[in-house]
Amino acid sequence: AESFNRLLDGAKLMVHLSNDHREVVVMTKYMGYTTLEAAETLGISESAVKARLRRGLKMIQTLWEAESIYS
């Protein structure tokens, strides 16, 4: 139950990401795409996917930590 709640909390934070960051996070972390598969699907380079993923996950982490302070 705890891990499911964490998953839901993380999904709620996704709305704060840009579309570019959200789509690569969803594709790689929820749908199971590799970064190469996501790149081919989106028509961008794999390095662009990795950069978007890294930035998106960092934003989620920052938001998660901020919410933990206030809850």
Please describe what this structure looks like.
The protein has 71 residues and is mostly helical. 80% of the residues lie in helices and 0% in strands. The chain contains 4 helices and no strands. It has helices spanning 2-13, 19-30, 35-42, 46-70. It is globular, with a radius of gyration of 13 Å.
How would the global form be characterised? Answer: globular
Distance linking N and C termini: 19 Å
Instruction: Let me know the number of strands.
Output: 0
Q: Helix segment count?
A: 4
Would you tell me the structural class of the helices and strands? mainly alpha
* Helix proportion: over 70%
Spans of at least 5 consecutive residues whose pLDDT stays below 50 are none
Mean pLDDT: 87
Beta-strand proportion: under 5%
Helix and strand element order: HHHH
Radius of gyration: 13 Å
Described by strand count, sense and barrel closure, the largest sheet is: none
